[in-house]
Amino acid sequence: MPTTRTTSTFAPPVMAARRWLDGVDFPADRPLLNVSQAAPVDPPPLPLRAAMAEIVMQDPEAHLYGPVLGLPALRAEVAKRWTASYGGAVAAEQVAITSGCNQAFAAAIAALCTEGDEVILPVPYYFNHRMWLDMSGVKAVPLTVGDGMIPDAGQAAALITDRTRAIALVSPNNPCGVEYPAATLRAFMALARAHDLALIVDETYRDFDSRTGAPHDLFTDPDWDATLIQLYSFSKAYRLTGHRVGAVVASQGRLAEIEKFLDTVTICPNQLGQRAALWGMQNLDQWLAGERAEILDRRAAIADHFPKLAAKGWQLLGCGAYFAYVRHPYAMSSADLAPRLVKEAGVLLLPGTMFMPDDHGGGDSQLRIAFANIDRAGIATLFDRLAALTL
Fold this sequence. Notes:
With 391 residues, the chain is α/β, with parallel strands linked by helices. The chain folds into 2 domains: 6-43 and 287-387, Aspartate Aminotransferase, domain 1 (Alpha-Beta Complex); 46-284, Aspartate Aminotransferase, domain 2, CATH 3.40.640. 39% of the residues lie in helices and 15% in strands. It contains 14 helices and 13 strands. The strands form 3 sheets. A 7-stranded mixed beta sheet has the order 2-8-7-6-5-3-4, sandwiched between helices. A 4-stranded antiparallel beta sheet has the order 9-10-13-12. A two-stranded parallel sheet has the order 1-11. Helix 5 links the parallel strand 3 and strand 4. Helix 2 crosses helix 10 (271-283). The chain is globular and about 55 Å long.
């Protein structure tokens, strides 16, 4: 096969892991625990589905092309809510709606980078970010995280070259789950501004942050849009994964460049999904608060039950939002351990090697647990199975 944009990167990790299930039977008394993917498996709540059905039948515009940068009412709603929740000022013209948050990242990189440019990514990284950089001819420069799986702006400064165009952060983090302190984000904002770089902050999981109030104050800077590009996903908040609705918040100038990318890829975001997201934002605050409380309870369950793994030599490196990131005690790579867990424990999860370059140390002893789709009892069962391993 000739070398192409797609051959420059690796196969989708979640799809690769699903192949480990081929030919494996899971008995009724030990069903599969799938903690491999960070996505809701339930459909949207019933009131939202009813609203979507009405939209399908009653709103002719929901079936036609719409504005490339998204539904004006949804852009305005995001701007209003972001202004209220973060402080500062965000205008509707600084918001674009995308076909999922992955597309938001892809569009931002397309607007920022060209062949041979560089983007700094904390490691472990979200693998789809790395994949898109590879396919764009952009070098992903790994930044090793420090204590608590938190990146350090001072260490990032040493990685900046004349080809660096952006630093991309994810908070709450995927895969580690940790919530970056406001001071950390502020330090990265200052670093990016000093070097005329963009700071991309992916806040896909912001609705499940354990902190009260704004997680950072970046939007209070009157010139935030000269540096900051924020990404968001409606998929996790309203269970709209299949409808692909995300957002990018940036300067009007950058959105004008992003518009070129979006127009040539999808023309417009999913019309039904956008209307569903708008309805959810306007009607489901109380429901979403309950969803957040449930996720926080599952996070607490991780802490409650982890001692049984700690007694076996496991370490909890990070936990929050949808994820727990752990270090296993076995004398084998996580790339070999993860497939074995399917057969020996009935557990599907992802190895740390999927979240970092092949030549970067650490991933072979690490695993990601995406716990959003197992409840407190399921978490107890998961840890019982892992604790019972004899390898």
